[in-house]
Amino acid sequence: MDILFLLIPLSVALVFFILGALWWAVHRGQFEDIEAEGERILRND
Amino acid sequence: MQVKQWLGPIAYLRNMTSVNLAQDLPLTLPEHKADDRLTLLDDPQEWASFSQNEAGQPGCWASSVVFEGMHCAACAISIEEALRSVPGVKSVQVSAASHRGRIVWSEQETRPSQWMQASAMAGYKALPANDAHAHERRRQQARRMVWRVAVAGLCMMQVMMYATPAYVAEPGDITPDMVHLLRWASWVLSLPVILFSCTPFFSAAWQDLKHRRIGMDLPVAIGMLGTFVVSSLGTFEPQGPFGAEVYFDSLTMFVFFLLMGRWMELRMRDRTAGALEAVLNRLPDSVRRRSADDSWERVSIRQLRAGDVVEVLPGEAFPGDGTVLTGQTQVDEALLTGESIPLNRQAGDAVIAGSHNLSGRVELRVEQVGAATRYAQIVALMESASVHKPAMAELADRMAKPFLIGVLLASAAAAIAWWPQGPGHAVMVAVAVLVVTCPCALSLATPAAMLAAAGALARSGVLVRRLQALQSLAEVDTVVFDKTGTLTLDSFSVSALHVRTGVTHGDVWHWAERMAMHSLHPVSRAIAAEARQRRLQQGQGGDAQALPAGWVLTEHPGQGLSVHWPASDGFQRVLRWGSATFCDAPNGPRERLQVSLADEQGWMATFELQETLRPEAIHVVTALSQQGLSVKVLSGDAPGAVELVARSLGIDDFRGGCSPQDKLAALQAMQKQGHRVAMVGDGLNDGPVLAGADVSFALGQAVALTQSQADMVLMSGRLDLLEHTLVRSRQTLRVVRQNLIWSVLYNAACVPLALMGWLPAWAAGLGMALSSLLVVLNALRLSASLGRNS
User: Fold this and answer.
1) Architecture of the CATH domain B465-487+615-726
2) How confident is the model over B507-556, as pLDDT tens digits?
3) How far is it, in rounded angstroms, from Cα B115 to Cα B59?
4) 0.90 surpassed by pTM
5) Residue boundaries of the structural domains of chain B
6) What residues does each domain of chain A span?
7) A-side interface with B, Cβ within 8 Å?
8) Number of neighbouring beta carbons within 10 Å of residue B324
């Protein structure tokens, strides 16, 4: 069970890593026009 | 960032006058220059972009602004108080639902910078509303919100994982070290939530405290802070007075739920505000104008004057009301009149500012610019309607403050009562009380529904001038129509044709057209048009010929026309066209509109005419009667003509020959009997009658919108929208009632539960978020397009 003492801090670090990825996605505007991607298949270009 | 945000509106204005000042300004103005930035708006050129001259008060301007940092009805009240205290500000209306405000101020006593400063001091930045900048600002706001929700959501999930062992493990299963580690991890992941995700609640609560008032975020913020402090103490000082219990899972969860609710609200509000803005920002910044030497130059729309000739390419919006000189195109007027089909426009046709040129290049002569355009009038109406507070909303606003004070007191009482059971538990009960109460549902209940309905109506071409009118309309039981221009079009059609024996209809039509085309009388024009129509249907094309040489036309004022010419057999032939006496017509019912034709042998034919009914009128009248409303006609026209129209529509209750005073008296008599009356008129000459009715409609094609007294304007002139509007108003009132009942029931049920300690904090957060969301979602049902679910 000692491994938990490593895994739990690691999971905290992982959360911060995922938050970083989310920050990037949000600030690239990926959540601003959610419908557009779905509709893209209907467009010609 | 701050500076850029502030430069937004100004840079936008500068762009419009084709001087790009924004690029020349340093991007980092020192903070104490805030006032200078505001004073830029004191230039009359600048304030004119978001203000209009207030009608009836010379030297007074009505400005539209958007407020930043507003959350609730209490904010609206404090902004109003702050602005009213500025000398020179005549009136202030702020809408909590749309975050917009309308400020009337006198140019002799104050400047925009002064009252904007006052608003900023109260904690709310005021931004000019009429700019593209508002959109960018909203995008930023939405992005920050998504990010806050994401942080809270992710941390919540992980904190929940760390909390699970404590819930499922039997005592002694986990070592104290491990428990401590899990708490530490929870604490670390709660930090971003409390420090970042919660900031909107904290900053709003801080603003409230600083200004010694009470807002809806104050209880929530106290709850968040309380939970965090108690849980942190539990983590680091398990032997302290608050015990070893931690509530990080509850904290992150209710923060996430509350933010989720806020975010949904924001998205929905942006949708309605976006629709409004789409209308507001339809004019182009600059246009290509023909200059004196016949070359084209690009000028700012503000330099455009009536009489200028401009070029509009496909895809562009028309900069002003005008007439097409050359070219042919289709235009889209959907946002302005609700007319969804593209309309053909060619040389000589009128186009309106803000409509879109779809297919071809046209040149047009501009006739109205700026505030004189129909577009500007529509925008002004929509803006004033969106800040108007319905009576039910005002009531809810007044209730919000005592309610909040009650909540704070109740939670304090709960904490004291539960203290002996353990301080940690007592604080959490108090937190649940603070978080679960939902005054926002109460204050959103009415305006959210009415704004959603007004938005849907506006998209279909029904302008609502006062939101209150929606409520009045839902209670109406009598609809009174004016006749001319309302039930009927301004044209006539032939209802019967009587001829002398031995004369064919074909001959009569042939001669009638030749005579009628020489008269400008509306009856003659109607007959000429109908005759031409018949000819085209029978395959005889071409225009009627002018009179051949030798034919002499004589006018007999007040009676008619005559033509005489030498016929081939040497006789003099004569045709007469006009009134019955002029043509020696046999006696018939004289009260009907008629015109006769005679030749040298005497009377030949009589056309009986009636006013053309609006094609949808009969359907509307039937539909209204089916809904249990009594339909009446009051008209100033001759009783006979009124009877004819009323009978053909199946209306039994009609009165003709009414002066406006008679109409008003009749209306008041109905109201005295307890009826709620809606009046439908053309809005031109029945102002007092419209004002006297409980709700009034004007058919808005020919009306100067700002002068019209009507509560609602049917912009496309389609009468069938009346029925849809009525249905929608009833739905609106139903939704408002549901919302109010829900928020009262919710609060009445949840507060006692929380006080008893049966409601954990996370459930309280979920409850509050769901409750506001339910109210807004319920309101949003009203924004469906008109006629779809009626």
Assistant:
1) 3-Layer(aba) Sandwich (3.40)
2) 888 888 888 877 777 778 788 888 888 888 877 766 655 667 777 888 87
3) 16
4) no
5) 2-131, 138-277+385-450+734-783, 286-316+320-368, 465-487+615-726, 489-613
6) 4-42
7) 1, 4-5, 8-9, 11-12, 15, 18-19, 22-23, 26-27, 29, 31-32
8) 22
